[in-house]
Amino acid sequence: MNDVLQTMRNHVSVRKYKSEPIPQETIEQLVEAAQHAASSNFVQAYSVIAVTDPDIKAECAQLTYNDHVKDAAVFFVICADYHRLALAGKKHDVTIHTETTENFLVATVDASLFAQNLTLASESLGYGTCYIGSVRNNIEKISDLLKIPEYVFPLVGLTVGIPDEEQRVKPRLPKRAVLHQNAYDQVNYSQLLDEYDEMIKDYYQNRLTNQKDTTWTESMSAYLSKKNRIYMRDYLASQGFKLE
């Protein structure tokens, strides 16, 4: 087990931070490291907004319904970004296609890989992190606040700072549930889900904070039985992503 693998296995979501800033030089080092994520056709269809201004962080905290956003040293907002690429096209009298589902997926994957690299880089230096998917809860207001232009949309947020709490690592699905050899194998899902439900129920009942009495399949069924953020398609169209 090398240091990189151990850092990856130790990942937890940190929602309480000490009031210590991250130097600008370190922020730039983290972003530079994250930029070395793979990129489809090298389009690098992402940008990141590092929010350190206390007032803007406080407003982001309200819009995302996550109080710890304002307490983190920096709140990164990772965006899928074709604005820069549209300008590249103009240099050569070409109109790029942002309306195709494929190009939407390219930007989403690029930004996701960048986000994971940014998380790993941050945690390798001892910082705590937490992904904030709820940047999409009030996505139009977040976009206005951060002056996000056409052909760009915020995909996910990431709080980073010095941890002021300890958390147990949340047990992941058994490897047998996600690793398939040569072909997709669903034969043992029923047994694996039962085993995982027991594991997660024990974790939720015994973790340090926010204990609850539920299983993974219960919570996932409740979450996915609702149509969440159904306004996203209209928002994406308004940003130039009219998916075909």
UniProtKB/TrEMBL annotation:
Q: Does the keyword DNA-binding apply?
A: no
Q: Name one GO molecular function term.
A: FMN reductase (NADPH) activity
> Does the record carry Flavoprotein as a key word?
yes
Q: Which InterPro entries match?
A: Flavin_OxRdtase_Frp, Nitroreductase, Nitroreductase-like
Q: Where is the Nitroreductase domain?
A: 9-161
The alphabetized UniProt keywords are: Flavoprotein, FMN, NADP, Oxidoreductase
User: Pfam families recorded for this chain?
Assistant: Nitroreductase (PF00881)
Record EC number: 1.5.1.38
Domain of life from the UniProt record: Bacteria
Q: NCBIfam families attached here?
A: PRK10765.1
Regarding protein family, the annotation reads:
Belongs to the flavin oxidoreductase frp family.
Official protein name in the record: Oxygen-insensitive NADPH nitroreductase
